[in-house]
Each structure stands twice: as structure tokens, then as C-alpha cells.
């Protein structure tokens, strides 16, 4: 009632009429949905009849709990009267509001950011923070709170530091003194949130300081958009929409407020839906849809993928079917908002059954880089990953990529794990980086500068298999009877290690050979991937034996999701610990009975020797299945 008092009688009547046709802001059970409104759209929200029809179009197709109202982007600063009108409109619909800031000078000019050494720019940055904090009790910074400025002032200020070091220090200071402190000075209640983009390997180079900033800001937010893995300059793998959220959750436990997706790169509409549900598989409490304008883009028939019509997880035709709101109104889907709404409705049915996500712990030290984004390729091979910023000494199995070289104590930490009888798997990239730096005290291996072009593999003591295309790998040399090939590859009859192990103290160090082109991991045959999973996932109760591009999401209550990113249906084997003998398909209710794996599967040299149970399942293209172990 208080809200009605604040608006005019005419608006109140129109609001009551609206209630008959408009979907009430009754949200989903397991997460919130927000829509981000750019300054370019916000400034139109005061125009008569601009906002209401557009909002109605969006909000009847997807339930929206919150909107972010942006005050600044690309030097567009929205006036206070317009912002207040927009806020009152959304609040009258029962929708929460928060402010947004994009610190860009010109997005179209290679994402031109502010210069944080230029006094005039610094003043502007501060004023925008103060202005926005005065209007909202929560403010999020979109993707651009970094600097790519190399003006003469910046070059002088940098001095002898590296660009990375200079920018890390510069942006930490700017976060504190130009954004957070001024904002809190004008509004002590304001919650300041920094949203991180999807290029986490390279943050430090442009001043995103993952070590300092999450402690300064009240909340963080994660760009989980991965778009198209092939037809984009970033080439981000689909799995990253899940893994980056988990990584940033581990950086600020309990403080990662949500995942954020736009519609870019969704040449087939399943790709858009996948990003939304992968963000939710990571247990994001909120999903932000970027943006108000994109939610109104029409659904194009050209985005109906070739595999549609086979009841895949994102069913294009079902999504387009008219549906009824609670009040009986029929809605005919028309825009992208419905693709989001449809996806949310489907996953909301089971997300509550998933407990905490678990994966193979991998330490990526703050400000580290090396074998960029590699964890996501392993995720796409079915290895459940979990990136953490500190060394996870408690974990029984640890996976380390080249980025671990940034930890100066890494060799000692590896030794410590092996002494305690725990397993460590390192990549060939890390082996190369640690050569001459102590790794030889564990095992004498040589990462040579020679390559091999391979298609043939031998697993253990005899299982031969082939890749579908040639793979270029680095040649690693070892000493006979000192360390052992778990998986070998052959080039013209001569073999090289693909997966190698060396005894040390009470355990084994494993080395995984990474192809020169990471995407060639997808060409490793199923038998090879299975042997790698047997080691890496030995402490996880389930794995999936199958080709790459079939991912596994594991939760600590015997619930897991198998998702395929392949274009064709695929038969895979779910392999569980022996205490799980039955699976229930959570979506269909179907019960599956497993088969105890015969000794043939547990012969010497394979696996941990523990008894396993296998289930044959089929996954449709670009689809997931959810299982509960029993
Ligand atoms: Zn500059």
C-alpha cells in the first residue's frame, strides 16, 4: 500500500489493470533472476509509453526478481529524475532495484577504459561512484573496472614495474579510494559489488586484483558467458560457465552473488540456454540477464539447431509454445526472454535436489597464468574440476597446471602431498616450468623441445586405440625403470608418455602430457581419457567413461549431472563406487540397475582396485541427465 501512495492515482489505476495481464513477480524456487539495464536504455525509461510495454513483454516470459539500473556507460550519465522514475516503475511491480556502473569511455573503441593516473578521469570515476551510491543501496560494477590505458601519464607512473604489477596496485588503490570509500561516505548502507568478466586467466595484466578486491568489495559477481567456443576470439569452452563461478566462489566463499550471461555467440539457441543452466549447476544464487535490450530481441528460426525435434534438453519447439499465466492469460513467446524463462522453469524443477558441487581440486595462485583456461578443456573431457586460489593440502588428489609455477613453494608442497600418501597430477606444462627448479628431486624427467605427431595409443599393458586425427605432443624423456608409462603414444613405432607415473615416498606423481593445441585433448580416445579419470577422479564416487565433450557435474549427496555437448546422441558408461547399485533418473523417474564391473576391468595396473558398478546410459545432443545414486 505504501508504494501506491507514492504514485499518482492514474498510475495506480493503470497498475491495477496491469495486474490482470502481467505476470506477478513470483520467482523461481532455487535462484533469483535479474535483468541488467544499460544507461542507453535507462535514459529512455522516462519517455511516455516506452518502458511499460517493453517490461510487460519481458516479464510475462521470464520471472524477474530484480533489475540493475545503470547510471553510467561510455560517458552517458543518466539524470537523476529519469533514474527515479525508472526505479519507481520497477518497485511498483514488486521488483527489487540496484544500481549499475560501467566504467568505460568508449566500448566500441577496443573497450576504452578510464585512465586511473589522469586526475580528471579519477575525479570522474569518483563522481560516478558517489552519484550512484546516493541513489541505490546496492551498486554493481560491470565488466570494465580494469585499465588498458598506456597514455604518457601511465607510462611515466609505471616506471620500472611490469604493466601487471603497476595495474594491480593502481586498480586496488582506485577500488578503495575512488569507488568504495567515496560511495560509503555518501551512503554508509551501500553494498558494493564487483563483477568479474570471463577472462580470468588474464585479469592481473589489466589490473583486476583477485587477491585484494574481493576483500574490499562487499560482494563479487561472475561473468559466466562463454558464447561460442569456436566462432569467437576468446574460444572459451562451454564448461567454463560452470567452473568460473566455482572458482570465484572459492575466492570469496559465500560472497559470489551470481552469474551473468548475454546472448552473444548463441548461433544455435541451445548455446544460450546451456550457459544459463551451467551457471545454475554451479549453484549461483542469482542469474543476471544482459540486458534489457537483448531480452527484447526476437527469437530467430535460424537458431533452431539441427538436433531439434528429438526432445533434447532445450526443446526449441516446446519453448515457442503458447503458455498460460496463473491468471489464465495466454502468452505467445516472442523474444529471447522466453528462451531464458523456459530454461529456468526446466532446471528449477531439480536444482533443489543438488547439494554442494565437488571436483578435483586444482590450485591456481593469485595473479598466475600458464596453460590458459586449460582446466575447462579437462572439464569438457568429463573430469569434474574445482579451481582454488590456495594450495588445497587437505585434498587426497590434486591437479596442477602450469599456472601453479607462480607458487614459489610448489615443489615442496608437491613433495609434502606425496609424503602423506596423496596423489598429485601435474601437466607437461608445469613439468617444463619446474625443470631445474626442484621437480628433478622427485623424478628425473626431461621435457624436450622435440615434438611427435601421433594417432596411436597404448593404455597400460596392451590396450591399443587410435585418435580420429593427428595430435602434436611434446616429447618427454624418462629413465627406464625409474618411472612408468601409464598411457603411451606411438609415432612411427616409437613411443612417448601421454600419462606417466613416478613413485615417490608413499605415493605417485603423475604427469599428463598436454597436446600443443589444447583442443586436441578432445581427440584423446575414450580408453585414454578413462585411464586419466581413474587416477584424477579416484576420490570422487562417480565418473563417466566416454568420449570428450561429455561433462560431469558432481554433488556431495550422490546426485550428479551428465551433460553432452556433442551434436549426436552418445552412449556412455556411468561408473560409480560399489555402494551405489541403482540410479534414478531425476527427470524421468526411470530406475537403472548397475552391473558390477568384472575383474577384466580391474586387472593389475588399472584403477585403484576398488570394486565399481557401471550403468549404460544414452545422452541426447546438447542435453543433460540428472541422476540420484541409491
Ligand atoms: Zn593513462
**Which percent bin holds the helix content?**
25-40%
Ions, cofactors and other ligands present here are:
zinc ion
Which radius of gyration do the C-alpha atoms yield? 26 Å
Report strand order across the widest sheet: 16-15-17-18-23-22-21-19-20
Instruction: State mean pLDDT (0 to 100 scale).
Output: 94
- Beta-strand percent range: 25-35%
Poorly predicted residue ranges: 1-25
Q: State the major sheet.
A: 9 strands, mixed
Which secondary-structure class do the elements indicate?
A: alpha/beta
Distance between the termini: 50 Å
Q: What is the helix tally?
A: 17
* DSSP strand tally: 32
Give the overall form.
globular
Characteristic key phrases:
single chain; 630 residues; alpha/beta; 9-stranded mixed β-sheet; 8-stranded parallel β-barrel; 17 helices; globular; disordered N terminus; binds zinc ion
Q: How does the SSE layout of this entry go?
A:
Elements: H1 2-6, H2 9-21, E1 32-37, H3 39-42, H4 51-59, E2 66-73, E3 76-77, H5 80-92, E4 96-101, E5 104-106, E6 112-113, H6 119-135, E7 138-141, H7 152-158, H8 163-186, E8 191-196, H9 213-216, E9 219-223, H10 240-251, E10 256-261, H11 269-281, E11 286-290, H12 316-319, E12 323-324, E13 330-331, H13 336-348, E14 357-358, E15 360-363, H14 374-380, E16 385-388, E17 397-400, H15 410-419, E18 423-427, H16 428-434, E19 445-459, E20 463-478, E21 483-491, E22 494-504, E23 507-512, H17 526-536, E24 542-545, E25 550-555, E26 559-564, E27 570-577, E28 582-585, E29 591-593, E30 595-596, E31 612-619, E32 624-629
Parallel strand pairs: 1-2, 1-11, 2-4, 4-7, 7-8, 8-9, 9-10, 10-11, 15-16, 15-17, 17-18, 18-23
Antiparallel strand pairs: 2-3, 5-6, 12-13, 14-25, 19-20, 19-21, 21-22, 22-23, 24-27, 25-26, 26-32, 27-31, 28-29, 28-32, 30-31
Helix pairs in contact: 6-8, 10-11, 11-13
Bound molecules: zinc ion.
Residues 115, 117-118, 149, 151, 153-154 line the site of zinc ion.
Amino acid at each position: 500500500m505504501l508504494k501506491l501512495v507514492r504514485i499518482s492515482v492514474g498510475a495506480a489505476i493503470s497498475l491495477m489493470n496491469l495486474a490482470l495481464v502481467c505476470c506477478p513477480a513470483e520467482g523461481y524456487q532455487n535462484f533469483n533472476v535479474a535483468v541488467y539495464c544499460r544507461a542507453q536504455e535507462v535514459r529512455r525509461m522516462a519517455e511516455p509509453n516506452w518502458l511499460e510495454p517493453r517490461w510487460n513483454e519481458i516479464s510475462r516470459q521470464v520471472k524477474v526478481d530484480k533489475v540493475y539500473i545503470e547510471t553510467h556507460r561510455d560517458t552517458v550519465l543518466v539524470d537523476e529524475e529519469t533514474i527515479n522514475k525508472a526505479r519507481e516503475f520497477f518497485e511498483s511491480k514488486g521488483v527489487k532495484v540496484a544500481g549499475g556502473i560501467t566504467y568505460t569511455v568508449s566500448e566500441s573503441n577496443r573497450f576504452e577504459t578510464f585512465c586511473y593516473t589522469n586526475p580528471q578521469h579519477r575525479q570522474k570515476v569518483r563522481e560516478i561512484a558517489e552519484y550512484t551510491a546516493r541513489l541505490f543501496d546496492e551498486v554493481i560494477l560491470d565488466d570494465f573496472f580494469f585499465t588498458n590505458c598506456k597514455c604518457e601519464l601511465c607510462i611515466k607512473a609505471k616506471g620500472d614495474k611490469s604493466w601487471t604489477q603497476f595495474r594491480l596496485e593502481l586498480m586496488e588503490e582506485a577500488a578503495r579510494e575512488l569507488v568504495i570509500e567515496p560511495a560509503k561516505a555518501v551512503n554508509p548502507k551501500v553494498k558494493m559489488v564487483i563483477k568479474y568478466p570471463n577472462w580470468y586467466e588474464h585479469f592481473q595484466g589489466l589490473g583486476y586484483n583477485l587477491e585484494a578486491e574481493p576483500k574490499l568489495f562487499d560482494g563479487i559477481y561472475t561473468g559466466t558467458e562463454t558464447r561460442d567456443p569456436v566462432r569467437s576470439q576468446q574460444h572459451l569452452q562451454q564448461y567454463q560457465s560452470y567452473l568460473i563461478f566455482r572458482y570465484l566462489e572459492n575466492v570469496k566463499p559465500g560472497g559470489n552473488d551470481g552469474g551473468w550471461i548475454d546472448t552473444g555467440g548463441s548461433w544455435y539457441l541451445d548455446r544460450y540456454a546451456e550457459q544459463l543452466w551451467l551457471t545454475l549447476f554451479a549453484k549461483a544464487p542469482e542469474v543476471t540477464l544482459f540486458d534489457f535490450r537483448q531480452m527484447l530481441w526476437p527469437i530467430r528460426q535460424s537458431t533452431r539447431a539441427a538436433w531439434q525435434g528429438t526432445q533434447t534438453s532445450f526443446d526449441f519447439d516446446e519453448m515457442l509454445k503458447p503458455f498460460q499465466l496463473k491468471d489464465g492469460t495466454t502468452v505467445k513467446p516472442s523474444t529471447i526472454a522466453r528462451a531464458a524463462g523456459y530454461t529456468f522453469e526446466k532446471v528449477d524443477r531439480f536444482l533443489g535436489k543438488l547439494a554442494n558441487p565437488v571436483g578435483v581440486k586444482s590450485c591456481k595462485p593469485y595473479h598466475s597464468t600458464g596453460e590458459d583456461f586449460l582446466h575447462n578443456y579437462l572439464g569438457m573431457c568429463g573430469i569434474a574440476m574445482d579451481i582454488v586460489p590456495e594450495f588445497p593440502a587437505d585434498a587426497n588428489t590434486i591437479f596442477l597446471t602450469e599456472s601453479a609455477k607462480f607458487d614459489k613453494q610448489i615443489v615442496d608442497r608437491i613433495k609434502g602431498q606425496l609424503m602423506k600418501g596423496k596423489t598429485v597430477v601435474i601437466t607437461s606444462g608445469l613439468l617444463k616450468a619446474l625443470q631445474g627448479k626442484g621437480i628433478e628431486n622427485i623424478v628425473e624427467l626431461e621435457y624436450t623441445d622435440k615434438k611427435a605427431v601421433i594417432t596411436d595409443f597404448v593404455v597400460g599393458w596392451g590396450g591399443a586405440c587410435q585418435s580420429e586425427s593427428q595430435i602434436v605432443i611434446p616429447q618427454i624423456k624418462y629413465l627406464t625403470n625409474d618411472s612408468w608409462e601409464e598411457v603411451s603414444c606411438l609415432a612411427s613405432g616409437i613411443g612417448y608418455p601421454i600419462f606417466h607415473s613416478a613413485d615417490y615416498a608413499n605415493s605417485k606423481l603423475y604427469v599428463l602430457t598436454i597436446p600443443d593445441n589444447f583442443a586436441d585433448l578432445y581427440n584423446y580416445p575414450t580408453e585414454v581419457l578413462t585411464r586419466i579419470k581413474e587416477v584424477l577422479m579416484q576420490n570422487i564416487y562417480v565418473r563417466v567413461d566416454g568420449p570428450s565433450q561429455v561433462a560431469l557435474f558432481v554433488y556431495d549427496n550422490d546426485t550428479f549431472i551428465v551433460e553432452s555437448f556433442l551434436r549426436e546422441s552418445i552412449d556412455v558408461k556411468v561408473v560409480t563406487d560399489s555402494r551405489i547399485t541403482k540410479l534414478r533418473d531425476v527427470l524421468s523417474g526411470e530406475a537403472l540397475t548397475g552391473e558390477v564391473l568384472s575383474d577384466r576391468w580391474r586387472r593389475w595396473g588399472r584403477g585403484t582396485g576398488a570394486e565399481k558398478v557401471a550403468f549404460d546410459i544414452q545422452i541426447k545432443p546438447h542435453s543433460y541427465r540428472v541422476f540420484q545414486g541409491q
